[in-house]
Amino acid sequence: MMNVPLTLRSMLERAEKFFPRKEIVSRTSSGIFRYTYAEYGRRTRRLSSALASLGVKRGERVATFAWNHHRHLEAYFAIPCMGAVLHTINIRLSPEHIIYIVNHAEDRVMLVDEDLVPILEKIQDQLPTIKAYVMMTDKPELPPTTLHPVYSYEQLIEQGDPAYTYPEDLDENAPLGMCYTSATTGNPKGVVYSHRGIFLHSMAVGLADTIGLSENDTIMPVVPMFHANAWGFPFAAVWFGAKQVLPGPGPTPKLLLQLIQQEKVTLAAGVPTVWLGVLKAMEEEQYDVKSLRSVICGGSAAPRSLIQTYETKFGIPFLHAYGMTETSPVALVSRLKSYQQSLSEEEMLDIRAKQGLLVPGLEMRIIGKNGEVAWDGQEMGELQIRGPWIASEYYKDERTKEAFEDGWLKTGDVAVIDGEGFVKLVDRTKDLVKSGGEWISSVDLENALMAHPAVFEASVVGIPHPKWDERPVAFVVLKEEAKGKVDKQELLDFLRGQFVKWWIPDDLVFLEEIPKTSVGKFLKRALREQYKDHLASAQR
Fold first, then answer.
1. Is the pLDDT of residue 245 over 90?
2. Is 439 in the active site?
3. Cα–Cα 20 to 30 A to 392, which of 9, 193, 201, 345?
Protein backbone atom coordinates (compact mmCIF):
# COMPACT_ATOMS: atom_id res chain seq x y z
CA MET A 1 0.00 0.00 0.00
CA MET A 2 1.18 3.53 -0.76
CA ASN A 3 2.20 5.44 2.33
CA VAL A 4 0.66 8.78 1.30
CA PRO A 5 0.61 11.43 4.08
CA LEU A 6 -2.86 12.46 5.23
CA THR A 7 -2.60 16.26 5.16
CA LEU A 8 -4.85 19.23 4.54
CA ARG A 9 -3.11 20.08 1.26
CA SER A 10 -4.84 17.26 -0.64
CA MET A 11 -8.22 18.26 0.84
CA LEU A 12 -7.90 21.83 -0.46
CA GLU A 13 -6.63 20.70 -3.85
CA ARG A 14 -9.65 18.43 -4.29
CA ALA A 15 -12.03 21.37 -3.81
CA GLU A 16 -10.03 23.48 -6.27
CA LYS A 17 -9.93 20.76 -8.95
CA PHE A 18 -13.37 19.19 -8.73
CA PHE A 19 -15.68 21.86 -7.29
CA PRO A 20 -14.41 25.21 -8.63
CA ARG A 21 -17.96 26.46 -9.30
CA LYS A 22 -19.44 25.55 -5.92
CA GLU A 23 -20.35 28.51 -3.73
CA ILE A 24 -19.35 29.90 -0.34
CA VAL A 25 -21.76 32.45 1.13
CA SER A 26 -20.40 34.67 3.88
CA ARG A 27 -22.22 37.27 5.95
CA THR A 28 -19.90 40.11 6.97
CA SER A 29 -20.45 43.42 8.75
CA SER A 30 -21.35 45.08 5.44
CA GLY A 31 -23.56 42.41 3.87
CA ILE A 32 -23.42 39.11 1.98
CA PHE A 33 -20.23 38.08 0.18
CA ARG A 34 -20.32 35.25 -2.38
CA TYR A 35 -17.54 33.48 -4.21
CA THR A 36 -16.56 30.09 -5.60
CA TYR A 37 -14.14 27.42 -4.43
CA ALA A 38 -11.85 28.40 -7.31
CA GLU A 39 -11.67 31.95 -5.93
CA TYR A 40 -11.43 30.57 -2.40
CA GLY A 41 -8.38 28.52 -3.39
CA ARG A 42 -6.60 31.52 -4.90
CA ARG A 43 -7.31 33.74 -1.88
CA THR A 44 -6.24 30.98 0.51
CA ARG A 45 -2.92 30.59 -1.31
CA ARG A 46 -2.48 34.38 -1.32
CA LEU A 47 -2.94 34.38 2.47
CA SER A 48 -0.32 31.65 2.91
CA SER A 49 2.08 33.62 0.73
CA ALA A 50 1.40 36.82 2.68
CA LEU A 51 1.96 35.12 6.04
CA ALA A 52 5.25 33.73 4.76
CA SER A 53 6.27 37.28 3.79
CA LEU A 54 5.56 38.31 7.41
CA GLY A 55 8.07 35.71 8.52
CA VAL A 56 5.73 32.90 9.64
CA LYS A 57 7.61 29.58 9.60
CA ARG A 58 6.68 25.94 9.98
CA GLY A 59 5.38 25.01 13.39
CA GLU A 60 4.73 28.62 14.44
CA ARG A 61 1.31 29.52 15.75
CA VAL A 62 -0.94 31.96 13.89
CA ALA A 63 -3.97 33.04 15.91
CA THR A 64 -7.45 33.94 14.69
CA PHE A 65 -9.80 36.16 16.69
CA ALA A 66 -12.88 36.14 14.53
CA TRP A 67 -16.49 35.23 13.74
CA ASN A 68 -17.71 32.69 11.15
CA HIS A 69 -16.97 34.18 7.73
CA HIS A 70 -15.00 33.55 4.51
CA ARG A 71 -11.75 35.11 5.72
CA HIS A 72 -11.75 32.83 8.76
CA LEU A 73 -12.41 29.88 6.44
CA GLU A 74 -9.41 30.91 4.34
CA ALA A 75 -7.26 30.88 7.47
CA TYR A 76 -8.53 27.36 8.30
CA PHE A 77 -6.56 26.03 5.31
CA ALA A 78 -3.95 28.71 4.55
CA ILE A 79 -2.19 28.41 7.90
CA PRO A 80 -1.96 24.59 8.22
CA CYS A 81 -1.23 23.97 4.51
CA MET A 82 1.92 26.13 4.73
CA GLY A 83 3.06 24.13 7.76
CA ALA A 84 2.11 26.62 10.47
CA VAL A 85 -0.43 25.99 13.26
CA LEU A 86 -3.94 27.48 13.25
CA HIS A 87 -4.81 28.72 16.76
CA THR A 88 -8.48 29.68 17.02
CA ILE A 89 -9.10 31.92 20.05
CA ASN A 90 -12.46 32.11 21.79
CA ILE A 91 -13.55 35.75 21.40
CA ARG A 92 -15.80 35.53 24.46
CA LEU A 93 -13.10 34.62 26.96
CA SER A 94 -12.08 37.04 29.69
CA PRO A 95 -9.09 39.31 28.94
CA GLU A 96 -7.07 37.36 31.52
CA HIS A 97 -7.71 34.06 29.74
CA ILE A 98 -6.98 35.55 26.31
CA ILE A 99 -3.65 36.84 27.60
CA TYR A 100 -2.87 33.45 29.10
CA ILE A 101 -3.55 31.35 25.99
CA VAL A 102 -1.84 33.72 23.52
CA ASN A 103 1.30 33.73 25.65
CA HIS A 104 1.09 30.03 26.44
CA ALA A 105 0.75 29.16 22.73
CA GLU A 106 3.39 31.78 21.83
CA ASP A 107 1.36 33.03 18.88
CA ARG A 108 3.40 34.97 16.32
CA VAL A 109 0.71 36.64 14.15
CA MET A 110 -2.95 37.31 14.90
CA LEU A 111 -5.81 37.73 12.42
CA VAL A 112 -8.57 39.82 14.03
CA ASP A 113 -12.01 41.06 12.99
CA GLU A 114 -12.43 44.83 12.94
CA ASP A 115 -15.24 44.84 15.53
CA LEU A 116 -13.09 42.80 17.94
CA VAL A 117 -10.02 45.04 17.72
CA PRO A 118 -10.95 47.06 20.85
CA ILE A 119 -10.62 43.90 22.98
CA LEU A 120 -7.03 43.41 21.83
CA GLU A 121 -6.10 47.09 22.00
CA LYS A 122 -6.60 46.96 25.78
CA ILE A 123 -4.25 44.00 26.27
CA GLN A 124 -1.70 44.21 23.43
CA ASP A 125 1.06 45.34 25.82
CA GLN A 126 0.66 41.97 27.56
CA LEU A 127 1.03 39.93 24.35
CA PRO A 128 4.80 40.07 23.71
CA THR A 129 4.95 37.12 21.31
CA ILE A 130 2.65 38.75 18.73
CA LYS A 131 4.82 40.32 16.03
CA ALA A 132 2.01 41.45 13.69
CA TYR A 133 -1.75 41.96 13.66
CA VAL A 134 -3.83 41.51 10.50
CA MET A 135 -7.19 43.26 10.57
CA MET A 136 -10.04 41.58 8.70
CA THR A 137 -12.30 44.39 7.48
CA ASP A 138 -14.56 45.14 4.52
CA LYS A 139 -13.32 48.73 4.38
CA PRO A 140 -10.88 49.65 1.59
CA GLU A 141 -8.62 51.53 4.00
CA LEU A 142 -7.30 50.29 7.32
CA PRO A 143 -9.47 51.71 10.15
CA PRO A 144 -7.64 53.64 12.92
CA THR A 145 -6.23 51.43 15.67
CA THR A 146 -3.52 51.42 18.31
CA LEU A 147 -2.51 47.86 17.39
CA HIS A 148 1.04 47.81 16.06
CA PRO A 149 2.27 46.68 13.67
CA VAL A 150 -1.04 46.16 11.91
CA TYR A 151 -1.89 45.23 8.32
CA SER A 152 -5.06 45.20 6.25
CA TYR A 153 -6.07 41.60 5.43
CA GLU A 154 -7.27 42.51 1.93
CA GLN A 155 -4.26 44.67 1.11
CA LEU A 156 -1.92 42.00 2.46
CA ILE A 157 -3.35 39.10 0.43
CA GLU A 158 -3.49 41.30 -2.68
CA GLN A 159 0.30 41.16 -2.58
CA GLY A 160 0.29 37.38 -2.07
CA ASP A 161 0.88 34.74 -4.74
CA PRO A 162 -2.41 33.10 -5.95
CA ALA A 163 -0.36 30.12 -7.16
CA TYR A 164 1.60 29.70 -3.90
CA THR A 165 2.88 26.13 -3.76
CA TYR A 166 2.32 24.15 -0.59
CA PRO A 167 5.05 21.86 0.74
CA GLU A 168 4.59 18.16 0.02
CA ASP A 169 6.85 16.94 2.80
CA LEU A 170 4.64 17.83 5.78
CA ASP A 171 4.41 15.06 8.37
CA GLU A 172 0.80 13.93 8.76
CA ASN A 173 1.36 13.82 12.50
CA ALA A 174 2.54 17.43 12.59
CA PRO A 175 0.28 19.90 14.40
CA LEU A 176 -2.39 21.46 12.20
CA GLY A 177 -4.26 23.52 14.74
CA MET A 178 -4.95 24.11 18.37
CA CYS A 179 -7.86 25.21 20.53
CA TYR A 180 -8.05 25.92 24.25
CA THR A 181 -10.90 24.59 26.34
CA SER A 182 -13.33 27.03 27.96
CA ALA A 183 -12.07 26.76 31.51
CA THR A 184 -14.58 26.65 34.36
CA THR A 185 -11.77 26.43 36.89
CA GLY A 186 -8.11 27.30 36.43
CA ASN A 187 -6.55 28.30 33.13
CA PRO A 188 -7.80 26.96 29.77
CA LYS A 189 -6.13 23.79 28.49
CA GLY A 190 -4.61 23.66 25.00
CA VAL A 191 -5.61 20.83 22.65
CA VAL A 192 -3.45 20.23 19.56
CA TYR A 193 -4.85 18.68 16.37
CA SER A 194 -2.74 16.89 13.74
CA HIS A 195 -3.21 16.78 9.96
CA ARG A 196 -3.87 13.05 10.19
CA GLY A 197 -6.46 13.51 12.93
CA ILE A 198 -8.45 16.17 11.07
CA PHE A 199 -8.22 14.20 7.79
CA LEU A 200 -9.71 11.09 9.42
CA HIS A 201 -12.24 13.10 11.43
CA SER A 202 -13.45 14.77 8.21
CA MET A 203 -13.90 11.33 6.66
CA ALA A 204 -15.99 10.30 9.66
CA VAL A 205 -18.22 13.39 9.27
CA GLY A 206 -19.04 12.18 5.75
CA LEU A 207 -20.12 8.67 6.78
CA ALA A 208 -23.81 7.97 6.18
CA ASP A 209 -24.18 6.57 9.68
CA THR A 210 -22.75 9.70 11.32
CA ILE A 211 -23.47 13.15 9.82
CA GLY A 212 -23.49 12.09 6.18
CA LEU A 213 -22.13 15.43 4.93
CA SER A 214 -21.74 15.39 1.14
CA GLU A 215 -21.32 17.59 -1.93
CA ASN A 216 -25.13 17.78 -2.16
CA ASP A 217 -25.38 19.62 1.14
CA THR A 218 -25.50 23.28 2.04
CA ILE A 219 -23.94 23.43 5.49
CA MET A 220 -24.30 26.30 7.97
CA PRO A 221 -22.05 25.94 11.03
CA VAL A 222 -23.62 28.09 13.75
CA VAL A 223 -21.15 26.68 16.25
CA PRO A 224 -18.38 29.31 16.39
CA MET A 225 -15.31 28.70 14.25
CA PHE A 226 -13.19 29.67 17.28
CA HIS A 227 -14.44 26.56 19.10
CA ALA A 228 -13.46 22.91 18.55
CA ASN A 229 -12.86 23.23 14.79
CA ALA A 230 -16.48 24.37 14.37
CA TRP A 231 -17.19 20.68 14.97
CA GLY A 232 -15.13 19.77 11.91
CA PHE A 233 -17.60 21.06 9.30
CA PRO A 234 -15.42 23.75 7.63
CA PHE A 235 -12.68 21.19 6.94
CA ALA A 236 -15.03 18.46 5.70
CA ALA A 237 -17.20 20.82 3.63
CA VAL A 238 -14.20 22.16 1.68
CA TRP A 239 -12.95 18.62 1.04
CA PHE A 240 -16.34 17.35 -0.15
CA GLY A 241 -17.20 20.50 -2.10
CA ALA A 242 -20.35 21.28 -0.11
CA LYS A 243 -21.83 24.76 -0.31
CA GLN A 244 -21.09 26.67 2.88
CA VAL A 245 -23.14 29.42 4.51
CA LEU A 246 -21.19 31.31 7.18
CA PRO A 247 -23.47 33.44 9.42
CA GLY A 248 -20.93 36.10 10.37
CA PRO A 249 -20.81 38.41 13.40
CA GLY A 250 -23.37 38.15 16.21
CA PRO A 251 -25.95 35.95 14.47
CA THR A 252 -29.48 36.10 15.93
CA PRO A 253 -32.10 33.34 15.65
CA LYS A 254 -34.05 35.37 13.07
CA LEU A 255 -30.93 35.99 11.02
CA LEU A 256 -30.11 32.27 11.05
CA LEU A 257 -33.62 31.45 9.88
CA GLN A 258 -33.39 34.03 7.10
CA LEU A 259 -30.14 32.46 5.87
CA ILE A 260 -31.65 28.97 6.02
CA GLN A 261 -34.60 30.21 3.97
CA GLN A 262 -32.62 32.24 1.43
CA GLU A 263 -29.73 29.83 0.87
CA LYS A 264 -31.72 26.57 1.17
CA VAL A 265 -29.51 25.24 3.97
CA THR A 266 -29.70 21.45 4.37
CA LEU A 267 -27.57 21.03 7.52
CA ALA A 268 -27.07 23.46 10.39
CA ALA A 269 -25.07 22.81 13.54
CA GLY A 270 -25.24 24.45 16.97
CA VAL A 271 -25.64 23.96 20.72
CA PRO A 272 -29.03 23.44 22.44
CA THR A 273 -29.34 27.10 23.48
CA VAL A 274 -29.04 28.11 19.80
CA TRP A 275 -31.84 25.75 18.80
CA LEU A 276 -34.00 26.91 21.71
CA GLY A 277 -33.65 30.49 20.44
CA VAL A 278 -34.38 29.46 16.85
CA LEU A 279 -37.43 27.50 18.02
CA LYS A 280 -38.77 30.58 19.79
CA ALA A 281 -38.29 32.65 16.61
CA MET A 282 -40.08 30.03 14.49
CA GLU A 283 -43.03 30.12 16.88
CA GLU A 284 -43.24 33.91 16.50
CA GLU A 285 -42.84 34.16 12.72
CA GLN A 286 -43.16 31.81 9.76
CA TYR A 287 -40.08 30.76 7.78
CA ASP A 288 -39.59 28.32 4.91
CA VAL A 289 -37.24 25.70 6.36
CA LYS A 290 -38.23 22.76 4.14
CA SER A 291 -34.66 22.55 2.78
CA LEU A 292 -33.33 21.34 6.14
CA ARG A 293 -32.65 17.63 6.18
CA SER A 294 -31.39 17.98 9.74
CA VAL A 295 -30.29 20.32 12.47
CA ILE A 296 -27.31 18.94 14.35
CA CYS A 297 -27.16 19.54 18.07
CA GLY A 298 -24.11 19.05 20.29
CA GLY A 299 -22.11 20.74 23.01
CA SER A 300 -24.45 19.58 25.77
CA ALA A 301 -27.43 17.25 26.11
CA ALA A 302 -30.50 18.38 24.16
CA PRO A 303 -33.82 18.15 26.01
CA ARG A 304 -36.08 15.38 24.71
CA SER A 305 -38.85 17.97 24.38
CA LEU A 306 -36.69 20.09 22.07
CA ILE A 307 -36.13 17.16 19.71
CA GLN A 308 -39.85 16.34 19.75
CA THR A 309 -40.97 19.91 19.03
CA TYR A 310 -38.62 20.33 16.08
CA GLU A 311 -39.78 17.10 14.51
CA THR A 312 -43.51 17.00 15.28
CA LYS A 313 -44.39 20.69 15.10
CA PHE A 314 -42.01 21.86 12.36
CA GLY A 315 -41.05 18.64 10.57
CA ILE A 316 -37.30 19.28 10.97
CA PRO A 317 -35.19 16.16 11.67
CA PHE A 318 -33.07 16.67 14.77
CA LEU A 319 -29.71 14.88 15.01
CA HIS A 320 -28.18 14.54 18.46
CA ALA A 321 -24.36 14.26 18.65
CA TYR A 322 -21.63 14.38 21.28
CA GLY A 323 -18.06 15.54 21.35
CA MET A 324 -15.67 17.86 23.13
CA THR A 325 -12.62 19.98 22.34
CA GLU A 326 -10.40 16.98 23.02
CA THR A 327 -12.25 14.75 20.50
CA SER A 328 -11.89 17.02 17.42
CA PRO A 329 -14.85 16.74 18.28
CA VAL A 330 -17.46 14.26 16.88
CA ALA A 331 -17.44 11.04 18.93
CA LEU A 332 -21.07 9.88 19.28
CA VAL A 333 -24.05 10.31 16.96
CA SER A 334 -27.60 9.24 17.75
CA ARG A 335 -29.03 7.42 14.72
CA LEU A 336 -31.53 4.60 14.95
CA LYS A 337 -30.51 1.15 13.77
CA SER A 338 -32.45 -0.28 10.83
CA TYR A 339 -34.58 -2.61 12.95
CA GLN A 340 -35.48 0.19 15.38
CA GLN A 341 -37.41 2.12 12.71
CA SER A 342 -40.58 0.14 13.52
CA LEU A 343 -40.62 1.10 17.20
CA SER A 344 -43.29 3.45 18.53
CA GLU A 345 -42.64 7.19 18.25
CA GLU A 346 -42.06 7.42 22.00
CA GLU A 347 -39.56 4.54 21.97
CA MET A 348 -37.67 6.04 19.02
CA LEU A 349 -37.59 9.43 20.71
CA ASP A 350 -36.20 7.86 23.89
CA ILE A 351 -33.30 6.42 21.88
CA ARG A 352 -32.62 9.55 19.83
CA ALA A 353 -32.53 11.73 22.94
CA LYS A 354 -29.43 9.79 23.97
CA GLN A 355 -25.98 10.88 22.79
CA GLY A 356 -25.89 7.84 20.54
CA LEU A 357 -23.53 5.27 19.09
CA LEU A 358 -19.76 5.51 18.91
CA VAL A 359 -18.48 6.88 15.60
CA PRO A 360 -16.59 4.26 13.53
CA GLY A 361 -12.85 4.50 14.09
CA LEU A 362 -13.04 5.18 17.83
CA GLU A 363 -13.05 3.00 20.95
CA MET A 364 -14.77 3.72 24.23
CA ARG A 365 -15.33 2.34 27.69
CA ILE A 366 -17.44 3.49 30.63
CA ILE A 367 -15.67 2.96 33.95
CA GLY A 368 -17.66 2.74 37.19
CA LYS A 369 -16.74 1.88 40.75
CA ASN A 370 -16.08 -1.75 39.86
CA GLY A 371 -14.57 -1.42 36.41
CA GLU A 372 -16.50 -1.32 33.12
CA VAL A 373 -20.22 -0.83 33.68
CA ALA A 374 -22.93 -3.24 32.58
CA TRP A 375 -24.77 -2.46 29.33
CA ASP A 376 -28.04 -2.12 31.19
CA GLY A 377 -28.77 1.62 30.86
CA GLN A 378 -28.56 1.95 34.64
CA GLU A 379 -25.02 1.58 35.98
CA MET A 380 -23.15 4.88 35.81
CA GLY A 381 -19.49 5.50 35.07
CA GLU A 382 -17.08 7.91 33.42
CA LEU A 383 -16.99 7.86 29.62
CA GLN A 384 -13.46 7.29 28.27
CA ILE A 385 -12.50 7.42 24.58
CA ARG A 386 -9.49 6.78 22.37
CA GLY A 387 -8.87 6.89 18.64
CA PRO A 388 -6.91 8.54 15.80
CA TRP A 389 -8.53 11.96 16.18
CA ILE A 390 -8.67 12.01 19.98
CA ALA A 391 -6.13 14.19 21.80
CA SER A 392 -3.40 12.40 23.72
CA GLU A 393 -2.28 15.29 25.91
CA TYR A 394 -2.73 18.96 26.77
CA TYR A 395 -0.22 21.39 25.33
CA LYS A 396 2.57 21.95 27.85
CA ASP A 397 0.20 21.32 30.76
CA GLU A 398 0.69 19.19 33.88
CA ARG A 399 -3.04 18.38 33.86
CA THR A 400 -2.31 15.88 31.07
CA LYS A 401 -1.54 13.20 33.65
CA GLU A 402 -4.96 13.60 35.27
CA ALA A 403 -7.00 13.52 32.03
CA PHE A 404 -5.08 10.94 29.96
CA GLU A 405 -4.33 7.54 31.40
CA ASP A 406 -3.19 4.35 29.66
CA GLY A 407 -3.94 5.90 26.26
CA TRP A 408 -7.53 6.86 27.13
CA LEU A 409 -9.11 10.33 27.35
CA LYS A 410 -11.06 10.63 30.60
CA THR A 411 -13.91 12.87 29.44
CA GLY A 412 -15.28 13.82 32.85
CA ASP A 413 -18.75 12.93 31.59
CA VAL A 414 -20.84 10.45 33.57
CA ALA A 415 -22.79 8.11 31.31
CA VAL A 416 -24.79 4.90 31.04
CA ILE A 417 -24.95 2.53 28.07
CA ASP A 418 -27.88 0.35 27.05
CA GLY A 419 -27.90 -3.14 25.56
CA GLU A 420 -27.78 -1.73 22.01
CA GLY A 421 -24.67 0.34 22.73
CA PHE A 422 -26.41 3.73 22.89
CA VAL A 423 -24.70 6.07 25.32
CA LYS A 424 -26.65 8.50 27.47
CA LEU A 425 -24.87 11.25 29.37
CA VAL A 426 -26.11 11.50 32.93
CA ASP A 427 -24.05 14.54 33.88
CA ARG A 428 -20.61 16.05 34.11
CA THR A 429 -18.77 14.58 37.09
CA LYS A 430 -18.68 18.03 38.68
CA ASP A 431 -22.40 18.66 38.05
CA LEU A 432 -23.87 15.48 39.55
CA VAL A 433 -25.77 16.30 42.73
CA LYS A 434 -24.64 14.12 45.63
CA SER A 435 -27.44 13.94 48.15
CA GLY A 436 -27.22 11.67 51.17
CA GLY A 437 -24.63 9.50 49.45
CA GLU A 438 -26.78 9.04 46.32
CA TRP A 439 -26.35 10.63 42.89
CA ILE A 440 -28.99 12.81 41.24
CA SER A 441 -28.71 13.68 37.54
CA SER A 442 -29.15 17.39 36.94
CA VAL A 443 -29.49 16.69 33.20
CA ASP A 444 -32.51 14.41 33.68
CA LEU A 445 -34.23 17.02 35.86
CA GLU A 446 -33.45 19.80 33.36
CA ASN A 447 -34.81 17.82 30.43
CA ALA A 448 -37.97 17.02 32.35
CA LEU A 449 -38.53 20.68 33.25
CA MET A 450 -37.98 21.80 29.66
CA ALA A 451 -40.69 19.38 28.57
CA HIS A 452 -43.22 21.56 30.41
CA PRO A 453 -44.98 23.83 27.88
CA ALA A 454 -44.36 26.94 30.00
CA VAL A 455 -40.58 26.49 30.35
CA PHE A 456 -38.08 28.07 27.95
CA GLU A 457 -34.84 27.12 29.75
CA ALA A 458 -33.95 25.23 32.92
CA SER A 459 -30.77 24.47 34.82
CA VAL A 460 -30.35 22.37 37.97
CA VAL A 461 -27.37 22.56 40.34
CA GLY A 462 -26.39 21.10 43.68
CA ILE A 463 -26.48 23.56 46.57
CA PRO A 464 -24.73 22.82 49.91
CA HIS A 465 -27.03 21.31 52.55
CA PRO A 466 -26.11 20.78 56.25
CA LYS A 467 -27.67 17.31 56.42
CA TRP A 468 -27.63 15.84 52.91
CA ASP A 469 -24.31 17.31 51.66
CA GLU A 470 -26.07 18.72 48.57
CA ARG A 471 -29.63 19.18 47.40
CA PRO A 472 -30.83 20.09 43.89
CA VAL A 473 -32.21 23.55 43.19
CA ALA A 474 -33.81 24.32 39.82
CA PHE A 475 -33.46 27.61 37.93
CA VAL A 476 -36.10 28.29 35.30
CA VAL A 477 -36.76 30.85 32.59
CA LEU A 478 -40.43 30.90 31.63
CA LYS A 479 -41.77 31.63 28.16
CA GLU A 480 -43.12 35.18 27.90
CA GLU A 481 -46.74 34.09 27.69
CA ALA A 482 -46.38 31.97 30.85
CA LYS A 483 -44.88 34.61 33.12
CA GLY A 484 -47.17 35.42 36.04
CA LYS A 485 -49.38 32.42 35.21
CA VAL A 486 -47.20 29.48 36.25
CA ASP A 487 -45.76 29.18 39.75
CA LYS A 488 -42.97 27.02 41.11
CA GLN A 489 -45.39 24.62 42.81
CA GLU A 490 -46.87 23.65 39.46
CA LEU A 491 -43.44 22.87 38.05
CA LEU A 492 -42.35 20.89 41.12
CA ASP A 493 -45.59 18.90 40.98
CA PHE A 494 -44.86 18.26 37.31
CA LEU A 495 -41.55 16.65 38.35
CA ARG A 496 -43.14 14.62 41.14
CA GLY A 497 -44.98 12.57 38.59
CA GLN A 498 -41.69 11.52 36.99
CA PHE A 499 -39.07 11.09 39.72
CA VAL A 500 -38.66 9.54 43.14
CA LYS A 501 -39.29 11.89 46.06
CA TRP A 502 -35.65 12.56 46.99
CA TRP A 503 -34.80 13.66 43.43
CA ILE A 504 -37.28 16.56 43.55
CA PRO A 505 -35.48 19.94 43.88
CA ASP A 506 -35.72 21.58 47.28
CA ASP A 507 -36.54 24.86 45.57
CA LEU A 508 -37.19 26.38 42.17
CA VAL A 509 -36.02 29.89 41.31
CA PHE A 510 -37.36 31.92 38.39
CA LEU A 511 -34.76 33.90 36.42
CA GLU A 512 -34.94 36.27 33.47
CA GLU A 513 -31.91 34.57 31.97
CA ILE A 514 -29.66 31.65 32.86
CA PRO A 515 -25.94 32.56 32.71
CA LYS A 516 -24.08 30.83 29.89
CA THR A 517 -20.49 29.99 29.03
CA SER A 518 -18.62 31.54 26.11
CA VAL A 519 -19.87 28.76 23.83
CA GLY A 520 -23.52 28.85 24.91
CA LYS A 521 -23.68 26.17 27.60
CA PHE A 522 -25.37 26.79 30.96
CA LEU A 523 -22.81 28.25 33.39
CA LYS A 524 -23.62 26.19 36.45
CA ARG A 525 -20.59 27.39 38.33
CA ALA A 526 -22.04 30.91 38.40
CA LEU A 527 -25.36 29.63 39.71
CA ARG A 528 -23.67 27.54 42.42
CA GLU A 529 -21.58 30.49 43.53
CA GLN A 530 -24.44 33.01 43.53
CA TYR A 531 -26.89 30.72 45.32
CA LYS A 532 -24.51 28.75 47.57
CA ASP A 533 -26.31 29.97 50.70
CA HIS A 534 -29.79 29.77 49.19
CA LEU A 535 -31.08 26.70 51.05
CA ALA A 536 -29.70 27.86 54.38
CA SER A 537 -31.35 31.27 53.90
CA ALA A 538 -34.64 29.65 52.90
CA GLN A 539 -34.64 27.49 56.05
CA ARG A 540 -34.08 30.52 58.26
1. yes
2. yes
3. 9
